[in-house]
Amino acid sequence: MEVAMGLLSRLILKVGDLLVGEYKLQKGVKGEIMFLHPELESMQGALEEIATAPPDQLDKQDRIWASEVRELCYDIEDSIDTFVVRCAGGAPAGTPDGMRGFIHRSLDLLTRLRIRRQVAADIRDIKRRVVEAGERRERYRIDVARPAAAVDPRLLAHYRKATELVGIDEARDEVISILMEGDDQVSNQHGKVVSIVGFGGLGKTTLANAVYEKLKENFDCWAFVSVSQTPDMRKIFKGLLYELGKNVNDETLDERQLIDQVRKFLQTKRYCIVIDDIWSVSIWDMIRCALPDGTGGYIIITTTRIFKVAEQVGGAYKMKPLCLDSSRKLLYGRIFSNDEIYKCHDEFLAEVSDRILKKCAGVPLAIVTIASLLANRGRNKMEWYEVCNSIGTGLEYGLDVENMRKILAYSYYDLPSHLRTCLLYLSVFPEDYAIEKFRLIWMWIAEGFVQHEVQGKGLYELGECYFNELINKSLIQPVYDRYDAVIESCRVHDMVLDLVRSISSEENFVTMLNNEHSTSQAKKVRRLLLRSNMVDHDTPCASMSMQQVRSVVAFSLASNLMLALGSFRVLRVLDLGNCYLPQDCDLKHLGNLFHLRYLGVGKTSCAQLPDDVGNLRYLQTLDLVGTRFGSLPSTVVQLRHLMCLRIDQHTIVPNGIGRLTSLEDLSTLYICDSTNITEELCHLTELRVLEIFLVAANDTLGRSLVMSLCKLQKMQSLTVWVSGGECNFDAWVAPRHLRSLQLQCCWFSRLPDWMAPSLLDLTIIQISVRELHQDDLKILGRLPALRHLYLMLDHENLKIPRRFVIGTSSFPCLVGCRLLGFLGAVMFQQGAMMMLTSLAFTFHAQEVREITSSDGRLNLGLENLVSLQHVLVYFRPRGASEMEVEEAKAALSHAFEIHPNQPYYDIWC
C-alpha cells in the first residue's frame, strides 16, 4: 500500500505537469487527464485513510483495491514517462546533417506522432480502468464488524520468568549502577533517567522489567506503563494512576486534569516508573509533564527503538546484543530439555548452530523464533541447515514467526510511506551484504523515491537524510569506513530482511530469480533481482515479459539478459556491478534504454562503453569502477542530467567534461600533463564529492588545478592523489561545509588560516604542512567533529627540532591519528584525545634521554591516551649510537607494555 501511496504522490505532480506543460497532446487527451488528476487525489486520500488501520485488521476488499491502484499507478507513470522521454527529449546523439539528417528528423517526427496517439490510447484505457476499479470496490463493499485487536506479543516480555532470561544479568546490573550511582542523590530530591534504546526484538522491555523488579521495592510507589505507536494519552495517564494505586473512575477528566492528578500524587513520593516503547519526542514531553522532580527522589526508565528519542529523554543506554555463549544457551534452552542441553555442546550441531546464531546476530527475539522452528526437528542436522538457509529468504510460517514479524513490523509501519518504499528496496540485496550508501541513495533517486528537494538540500542530501533516518529507527545497521569517521555502507539484519522480503512479495515490489524461487507469470515484474546459483540461466529471462521492469540488479547473470535489453521499455536502474558478463557479450543495446537513470557495470569484462551511451539523456548515475576502461566515449559529455560519475583512476575522460554541470560526485578524475581538464573543472560548481588522480604534476598544472578548486564552493569531500611531483596548495581556500579533506603530496607552507573550529563538519584531515607551530596544533585540536588526522610535516628535511604538546581536552572526537615528519617529540597531556584508538608517530632515538624520567620512563604521556589500542612507531636512528638506539627501542616497548590497555604496537626502523 505504501508503494501505491508513493507512486500516487509522484503521479499527481506528473499529471499536473502534463496539464500545464507545453506538450502537443491529441485533442481530447487533456480532458481525460483533467479527469485523472482529481481521481488520483481522491485515491491518495482513500489510501491514507486505509493506511491508518493495522495491517492485520485491513479489509480484504481494501487490500485488493490498493493492489489494483498500485498496478494502475505503475502503468500510468510508465505511459507518461514514455511520452515525455520520446517526445520531449530532442534529437538523439549522433544525428547526421544534410539530406540524411532531414530524413532522420522526418522519421523522428512521425515517431513522435505515433507516440502521441499511443499515449492518448493509454490514457483512455487507464481512465476506463480507474472507473472500473472504483465501481468494483463499491460493488463488493460489505460492512462487517472489525475483528478484535490482536494481543501485542511484546506483552509476553513483561511476564517472562526470571529463570527463562539469558544473558541479561550484566546489562541489568549496568543500568542499576547508572540509576543508583550515589543513591543519596536519588533520595535527596534528585532523580535519574535512563533510556534503553536498540533494535526491535533486542530485549529492551525485558531488560527494563528486570531492572524494575529489582529496584521497585526500594521506593514508595512504582508503575510500569506501555505507550506504543498510537497512544491514547488519557488511557496512559489513567493506567499510570492505577499502577500507582490510585483508581480513577471519572470519565470526564481530560489529559491536563489527569496530568495534574499524577503530579499531585507523586510530588512528595520517592517513585520508580518505567515508560515502555516511546516512539516520539512529543509524546515523551507530554508524559514528562506528569512526572515531577518532587521532594522524594525518583528513577525513570524508558525504552525506545529511536536514537533521537533516547537522546532527548536523556541517559541513553544502548542495548547490546547477546554474546555467542549466551545466544547458544538461549537457543538450546528453548529447544531441548534440561537433560538434553548438555549433550548439545558437541561438534554434531556446533557448526550449523553457530551459522544460525551468526544470522540472529545476538537478537533474543530472533533466537527464540528460530528455536521454535528447530524444536520439532530434534538433532536432525540436515533439517537445521534447511532452517539456517531459509533465514533472510523467507521463513516458514508459524505462530512464533508471525509474532516476530509483528514486533519488527511496528518499526516498519511507523515509517512514513516514502521511507517504507526506500526500505523495501533493500530486498534487492542479498543477506549479509554491505550495501554502499552512495549506491543505494542514487538507486532511490533513479527510482523516484527521493522526489522533492528541500531548500538548501539537493536530492542526494535528502536521500542521505532518509538513509540516516532508517539508521536512527534501528532498521538498518551502519558500517563505518576504516577511519571510523563516515558511514559508508549499511547492512540489514536477516530478520528485518525476512520481513522486508515478505512485504515486498505481497506488494509485488521485487521479483527474485534463482534456482529456488521464480515469479508468478500472472504478475507483472516491476523489479528483477538475479541471484547466484542459477542452474538454468536462460529459462527465466526467456519466459518473462520485460516491458514493465524498472530495475534489474544482478548478482549472477543470465546469459540472454544482455540480448533482452532492447525489450526493457521503462528500465530506470541497471546494476551489473556484481557480476561478470560473458566474453562475447557487449553493451550495444544500452543506447535504447531511454528511461535509464542509473547504470552500474563495474567488474564486467566489457572492452568499452558504447558511443550511443550519449542517448541516455536522463541518466543520473554512471558507475564504471572496476571496468578498467582506458577512456570514456566522447558522447558522455552529452549526459546533461548526470549527477554521479564514478570511474577507475586511470580512465581518461573526454574533453568537454565541463559541460556536465549537474555533476555532484566525480571520482576518480585522471589528470595528466595538460591543463585542459583542470580548466574545465571550474564549471562543475555543483560538485560535492571530488577525487582526483594527478600524474606528472608541475607548477602550471598545480596552479590551474588550485584555481579551479577555489570555485567549487559546494564541496564536501575532496581527495587529491599526486604521483610524480608535488602541488602547492597555499592558494586554496576550503569551502564552508567541507567534511573530508585528503591531500597526498599537496603541500601547505603553514597551516592555512581557514583551518578553524568553525569548520563544524570536518571529520577527516590528511594534509602535508612544511612548518607547524604549537598554536597550529591547538587550532586543529579544537575542530569539534574531527575523527581522523593524518598530519605530515617537513620538519625532518628542514631540520626544525620542535617539540609539541597535545593539550587537555584537545581532539575530543579523534579515533585515528598519524603524526609524521616531526623532528621533536609529541607529548600527550591528561584528558587529550580521549577517544583515540589508533596512533602512528615518528620518533627519533636521540630524543629518548631528554624525555626520560629518573625512574627510566618516557615522558610522552602515552598513558593518558585512555582508549589506545594500536600503535605504530616510525623509528629514526638519525646519528644515534647503537646503544642509544637499543635504549630508545626498549623505552618505547616498556611504555606500551605498562600502558593500562596494553595496546598492540609495532616499531618500524
UniProtKB/TrEMBL annotation:
**What taxonomic lineage is listed for the species of origin?**
Eukaryota, Viridiplantae, Streptophyta, Embryophyta, Tracheophyta
Tell me yes or no: is Coiled coil among this UniProt entry's keywords: yes
What's the name of the protein? AAA+ ATPase domain-containing protein
Any idea which UniProt keywords this protein has? Answer: Coiled coil, Leucine-rich repeat, Nucleotide-binding, Plant defense, Repeat
Show where the Disease resistance N-terminal domain sits. 8-88
Under Pfam families, the record lists: LRR_14 (PF23598), NB-ARC (PF00931), Rx_N (PF18052), WHD_DRP (PF23559)
Name the InterPro entries on file: Apaf_helical, Disease_R_plants, LRR_dom_sf, LRR_R13L4/SHOC2-like, NB-ARC, P-loop_NTPase, RX-like_CC, Rx_N
**Stretches assigned to the NB-ARC domain:** 172-325
Q: Which GO terms describe its biological process?
A: defense response to bacterium; innate immune response-activating signaling pathway; plant-type hypersensitive response
Q: Which Gene3D superfamilies match?
A: 1.20.5.4130, Helical domain of apoptotic protease-activating factors, P-loop containing nucleotide triphosphate hydrolases, Ribonuclease Inhibitor, Winged helix-like DNA-binding domain superfamily/Winged helix DNA-binding domain
The similarity comment for this entry is:
Belongs to the disease resistance NB-LRR family.
- Boundaries of each Disease resistance R13L4/SHOC-2-like LRR domain copy? 548-904
Q: Which organism is it from?
A: Panicum hallii var. hallii
Occurrences of domain Disease resistance protein winged helix (ranges): 428-500
**SUPFAM superfamilies per the UniProt record, alphabetical:** L domain-like, P-loop containing nucleoside triphosphate hydrolases
Q: Which domain of life does the UniProt lineage start with?
A: Eukaryota
Q: Which residue ranges traverse the bilayer? A: none
Q: Give this protein's Gene Ontology molecular function annotations.
A: ADP binding
